[in-house]
Design a protein that fits this description.
single chain; 9 helices; 10 strands; elongated
Length: 232
């Protein structure tokens, strides 16, 4: 897989992508990261990427031209854009979920567009990006944090990125539910004991306990997941 990131802050990604699963996946040849500096696609001496909004109002809006030219630079010969989905990180976007991570993990190439300042010219969202995605109902300083979260969620699903597939398959949201609580040694710490059933060695009872705990937590903490039509 090839992951392109168009951003004003390529250095933001270099540290995190050089650690843990994203780094190991790249070292194994499962993924390559291409960090694109948006200012390289400006044509004035100040490398201007934003301007005042039409109609007035507070804040600055990122211009469409640098995004368009940056994306076109990623296209193979004979095309005007790279293959695969082009995602704009946006507070207006549909909330990113595990099913999106699974879908994107099947692509050969994905491109992530990171905005900053007040907003991005809406023509980028409507005519350049193939979709807008959001992490949730809150605002961060730019698209870099959401883009990094998307990359991590996608890359860890690539075959071979995680050595223990069972570990990933029991994560929260893998099957539309929250996972059961986890415990490890010591069996008692400061008077707090691990549930006896987990020490029993009875794998069938342990599996049933974990299923029950996951269902209880999902009902209590994420009723939206529990009530979803496709809840499994």
């Amino acid at each position: 897989m090839r992951v392109n990131v168009v951003t004003l802050f390529p250095d933001f990604f270099r540290g995190p992508l050089g650690l843990s699963i994203p780094s190991r996946a790249a070292a194994a040849g499962l993924v390559s990261y291409n960090l694109v500096q948006l200012r390289d696609f400006t044509h004035d001496r100040h490398q201007t990427v934003d301007d005042l909004p039409y109609g007035g109002g507070a804040g600055m809006v990122m211009k469409p031209e640098p995004f368009w030219e940056a994306v076109e630079s990623l296209a193979p010969e004979g095309r005007d854009r790279p293959q695969g989905p082009i995602l704009l990180m946006s507070a207006r976007g549909r909330r990113f979920g595990h099913e999106d991570a699974v879908r994107l993990s099947l692509a050969d190439e994905i491109t992530l567009l990171c905005g900053h300042y007040k907003d991005v010219d809406h023509r980028v969202a409507e005519h350049l990006a193939t979709e807008e995605v959001s992490l949730g109902d809150f605002i961060v300083s730019g698209g870099e944090i959401p883009a990094l979260a998307v990359i991590d969620a996608v890359v860890r699903l690539l075959p071979g990125a995680i050595s223990d597939h069972e570990s990933a398959s029991t994560d929260s949201h893998y099957d539309g539910s929250l996972s059961a609580p986890s415990y490890t040694r010591p069996a008692e710490y400061r008077g707090l004991k691990v549930p006896e059933i987990l020490l029993s060695g009875d794998h069938a009872r342990i599996a049933a306990w974990r299923r029950e705990q996951g269902e209880t937590l999902t009902r209590e903490r994420r009723p939206d997941l529990w009530e979803a039509p496709d809840h499994s």
